[in-house]
Each structure stands twice: as structure tokens, then as C-alpha cells.
Predict the 3D structure of the following.
Amino acid sequence: MREQFHYYNPDATVFDEDLYGIIIYFQQIRKDSNDPDADNISKPIWDSLIGECYNDDKVVRLRYAGVLTLSPNTATGLTLDDIDENIAEDFDELLSTGKSFVYIHIGILRSEHYKMKL
């Protein structure tokens, strides 16, 4: 996780301010009996970024976590317009592999991040 973090964020610094974070687990095949829980996936990821992105994960004040099972319909509806070009290229490549993967986004928390109707 840390290696990938530095690969995509070579100039990253440790944040002290309040942050928001998004973690989406893209799974290729849904396994109802062993379907991953978004919270169980996200907590270890937040912990792994301690010392790399922040000193304490409590600064991630707003968190979104989700699991998306990919199908031809969901993959064609994904919009990558606001994602860095290098990440978008790798994202497209991962979609074509048939393997599951995790997308993580962290940013400075602003009041407009709090929406009561999504």
C-alpha cells in the first residue's frame, strides 16, 4: 500500500489538517457468502497510511467507503474525468484484468463535502 501511495504521490507530505477520504473496493465477481464489508476493507487502509499521509487517522474526518461489483454496465458508467491522467490509465488497465482492486482518494476537507442529500 505504501509503495503504491508513493508511486502516485511522489511529493506527498504528512497532513495536519482535517481530511476527507474515499475508498472503493472494485470486485470483479460478487460472492454473496463471502462479500467484503466496506468498513472492514477501509479501516486497515486508513491505518496503513499513518506516517505517510497523516500522523493519526482521526484527521480523516469524513469517510466514504464502498464495494462495487463490476459488470459491463457498471464499468461503462464510471467517469474518470476528475482523476489524474496516470491514475485513470492504470484504472482502465485494472478494469481489463478481471482482478479486484481498491481506489483511494484523500483530500483537504471543506464544508462543501458535507452534503445531506447525495
